[in-house]
């Protein structure tokens, strides 16, 4: 006889079993059946695959998984609709297809595609008109290919497009007709092509939907529209690198959703002004560089409290730096270089500022202490003359780039530069600094890549242990001073050194043949010092493997050079046919100068009679003609040209400045 409690327990178990069984059956019948890839879809994909060289021979390609014995919905880059089994997405970005799209390509048989990404696939040729057959497309990405010609009118059939990226191709013509029907488009990027004509008025049809508009670096030329109020959803606009002209487009900045504006490198002119700006403006980045703007920076700039990046460089702005700039408390990058600003640097509390470029203006006065927290500080080519007292006690250990060149500083080198620890670039050249080089600078030099102290009045000696840990140094320039003593042998530790210039000092030493062990040394300038003795010693290595420029003229070298002296100077003797012209390397003519060493013999036997560091135009023309490939300074003059790795100090700064506004070259994809 069953015990009642056991009976009820068994009843509960049976009830639960049938409940879960019913739930599973109901869920199974209610769920959609996962469809496999249709044969016509597989055939179209395989046909597309065989149009390119990326087949079984390229095991790294995503297309290697495209095989007939598997479900094409499981192939890499392919996505199918779960109900119909039709291919709705094809993502092949970064696969080197290395071909053109055929008019009857299998790709255009996938007429249910909603997403197509062929970014950086090395495609070339024109876009086939058949692309217009993919009328369900919502996302089309062709960025970074070699596509040419005009965008076919049939692309206008893609009325469902929300995202279109044609950036970085070679398209030409205008975009009026094909783009007229993209009324759902939110993201349009046609930058870095060769589109021409006026600002496409057809874009006004897209005004109510667009959030990102990027048409930079094309050949558009027209006045910029005065009314942008219809673009009420616009967040990013990039029209830089064209030829738009007219006054500053003040109405553009009334769009409350704007976060990123790039108008750089156009022909805009006149003053800038911001009116009727919402207190809740979201603007974070503003690029106005390389236009013809003039007048002062308006106080209304302070109406953008969220601004992080502001570039006003290379215009005709005048006046002082307004104190209202200090209201931009979120500012990280500020560049007003190459204008006509005057006066001092105002007090500020821009605690987030990391990049500041005030170079090439007419600013004067002192360098305030609050700049000690900036990572990259460019103040060259102004009339600054002193340092604020607060700078002496400021924490300057964060500064990575410090350029104070071409100002009016005088007196001893400031002691606070010895606190610069993570710095990579230090330029104090073309000032009136005097006195000796501080011993404490030895610690500052450790992380440096470039040290430029040229054209000051520095005296004393270069300490022998100054460069003992300077393994990162690529450039050392102390030319144009009054330094004495010997060349520091600690330079042997500078294994990255490419450029050494001690020209026009009073250094008295033997020829530093020990520098020949530096693997990357390209330029060696010892000119106008008191170096003496022979260049050649029978038991000393003389192989400057990478040297391309040497100038030891105006010294006291003596002795005779054997015919094989330069046989291992491969950087001097290797001719490049494509660079057979008299060139400038790192700001110096590519040559070897041994002149005015009256007791140095055998140069004519080795080098010929032409030792011309500064040739006349006619001599330059003669140098460009192919000569016999002997070891000669003519060879050195014609061996190196554009494309060499090492840059002048100014080029390094310019390059760094170009890279600094990383957002300016933003990929909206």
UniProtKB/TrEMBL annotation:
Pfam families: LRR_1 (PF00560), LRR_14 (PF23598), LRR_8 (PF13855), LRRNT_2 (PF08263). It is a single-pass type I membrane protein. Residues 39-81 form the Leucine-rich repeat-containing N-terminal plant-type domain. The chain crosses the membrane at residues 7-30. It is found in: Cell membrane. GO terms for cellular component: plasma membrane. InterPro entries: Leu-rich_rpt (IPR001611), LRR_dom_sf (IPR032675), LRR_N_plant-typ (IPR013210), LRR_R13L4/SHOC2-like (IPR055414). Keywords: Cell membrane, Glycoprotein, Leucine-rich repeat, Membrane, Receptor, Repeat, Signal, Transmembrane, Transmembrane helix. Residues 106-193 form the Disease resistance R13L4/SHOC-2-like LRR domain. Gene3D superfamilies: Ribonuclease Inhibitor. It comes from the Eukaryota. Belongs to the RLP family. This is Leucine-rich repeat-containing N-terminal plant-type domain-containing protein. It comes from Brassica carinata. The lineage of its organism: Eukaryota, Viridiplantae, Streptophyta, Embryophyta, Tracheophyta.
